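USER:
Before I trust my own judgement here, I would like a peer's view. Write it directly below this note and I will take it from there.

ASSISTANT:
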Amino acid sequence: MRILAVDTSTRSCSVAVVDGNDLLAEVTSGNGQTHSRHLMAMIDSALGLAGLNLSMTDGLAFTSGPGSFTGLRIGISTILGLSAATRKPIAGISGLDALAMQAATPDMTICPLIDGRRNEVYCARYRWVNGELVKEVAEQVLSPELAITGLNSPVLFAGNGAQLYQALIRDRMGDAARFAPNCQNTLRASTVAWISMKRFEIGDVDDIYRFKPMYIRRSDAKIPAPFKPL
């Protein structure tokens, strides 16, 4: 199954094309420019590197949140528009799920943190059990102090929120705090694609006319409705 996936939920922007277990192409930018300036060019580039066009894909995946409201709207509206034009099914994936999957390690709680600004982080908690990633605490937005409350045993932190508040976390948790390497802190679209694969295989897809981003907290603006295909 060929999946085109995008992530625009944080400062970085990532596009990937996977085919089953194989990564065909991935393009990631962390230059901080608004994603609307380069997302379509990155999609064209990833498809070109994969030797495909959009009609040759089987599904479109994207991060549904949480993260930057503006970034999410850009990525989601782009995928909804492509889906409306091509009739390709879509699947929205939690960015925290993807970060946890990238940093998954046995016998340790995994706590991905995405910078939510306003001195807050988007967070959740996971554990790797029998080869599967299990979500123990659902997505929420909290102060960094509250996000680590109750964590005493070794915990692996990942994501740009973990990088931003690393000193605070170390100060509060000491040796129990472990941190993912830098290569695991940037959310990769290929991870989003592989997580979405199971959903596409069983037909667990999202409705482009009813889809709602996972903002967690109130957004100041709403995503525009996609054009209805004729």
The radius of gyration is 17 Å.
